[in-house]
Amino acid sequence: MTITRLAVGSLIVGFAVLGLKTLAYSMTGSVALLSDALESTVNVATAFAALIAIRIAAKPADDNHPYGHHKAEFFSAVLEGVMIIVAALLILREAYAGFMHPLFLDAPIAGLLVNLAATSINGFWAFILITRGRRLKSPALVADGKHLITDVVSSVGIAVGIVLAIATGWWILDPLLAIFVAINILWSGSKLIKESLSGLMDEAVSDEMLIAVREIITTEADGAMQAHDLRTRHAGPVVFIDFHRVVPGDISVFRSHEICDRIENALKARFGDARIAIHVEPEHKSKQSGVIFPVE
């Protein structure tokens, strides 16, 4: 399944879940279930934003964007985090009203069953988005999936709380649960914004990936004397790698190019659509710091 199809699927699932949760709220009048429905409204809006961002990110590089449009997905993830926080503030407002005037719930069992059906759909789709999103290296899809997981956790907590309210008659639990939902998604929204901003700020790849890059450069650089000043960054599914490679001063251009090709092919075989820039230097450009492998 392609990234675009998954994004379209998220939009369809979002509308279906929103409809079910709105129905559950209308059946019960529960503030907690209303908060769940408000969060699903965010799901629909962010799924639409993710679809647009993914379509933009898929565009090839052009004169105005020579490095491609991959960062568009990070903008989508940041927007999703912001909208999650806005939804949390709306939920807190509704929870406060419910806390001041607790209400007896209508048809709570039937409403819970409808809401749990929506939760099951969300849980299944979240698993699909996270696993496929990581495989396709799509920050927008992974962010969407993680948000749905938060939604699932909130919905399960709400269901348990409403059952307790029914059993004990403590209807004050309903707005208290809504507050729990708001705090939970505030935390997830702030975390999502932080992760997405790291991509927009050209943060380096993970330590594990960086170790693998260094190992490949060292293994495949037979004929070179040194490599130094390695820099990496990631933008959606694409990894950017650049470094300086020192060769003997008397080596031919053809031989130097062969070494570069070997390193590039090995890096692309490991990291897929990697963008690699290698600056070739003569031996007097060797450095003592920032060295990947030393002079032999």
Description:
It is found in: Membrane. The chain crosses the membrane at residues 40-58, 74-92, 112-131, 152-170. The protein has two domains: 3-200, Cation efflux protein transmembrane domain (Alpha-lytic protease prodomain-like); 207-293, Cation efflux protein, cytoplasmic domain (Alpha-Beta Plaits). It is 68% helix and 10% strand. It starts with a helix and ends with a strand. The protein has a four-stranded mixed sheet with strand order 3-2-1-4. The protein has helices at 3-28, 31-57, 72-100, 108-136, 139-168, 173-200, 207-220, 253-271, and strands spanning 226-235, 238-247, 275-282, 291-293. Strand 2, helix 8 and strand 3 form a beta-alpha-beta unit. It contains eight helices and four strands; from the N terminus they run H-H-H-H-H-H-H-E-E-H-E-E. The longest helix is centred in the middle third of the chain and has 30 residues, at 139-168. The protein is an alpha+beta fold.
Write the SSE topology.
Blueprint: H1 3-28, H2 31-57, H3 72-100, H4 108-136, H5 139-168, H6 173-200, H7 207-220, E1 226-235, E2 238-247, H8 253-271, E3 275-282, E4 291-293
Parallel strand pairs: 2-3
Antiparallel strand pairs: 1-2, 1-4
Helix pairs in contact: 1-2, 1-4, 2-3, 2-5, 2-6, 3-5, 3-6, 4-5, 5-6, 7-8
CATH class of the largest domain: Mainly Alpha
Main sheet makeup: 4 strands, mixed
| Number of helical segments with 4 or more residues | 8
Instruction: Report the count of strand segments.
Output: 4
**Beta fraction of the residues?**
5-15%
Output the helix-strand order.
HHHHHHHEEHEE
Category from helices, strands and their pairing: alpha+beta
Q: Quick check: average pLDDT?
A: 80
Q: Would you give the CATH topology of the largest domain? A: Alpha-lytic protease prodomain-like
Q: Biggest sheet: strands side by side, in what order?
A: 3-2-1-4
* Tally of distinct domains: 2
Shape: elongated
CATH superfamily of the largest domain: Cation efflux protein transmembrane domain
Span of the ends, CA to CA: 48 Å
Q: What would you report as the Rg, rounded to the nearest angstrom?
A: 25 Å
Uncertain spans: none
Helix content: 55-70%
CATH architecture of the largest domain: Up-down Bundle
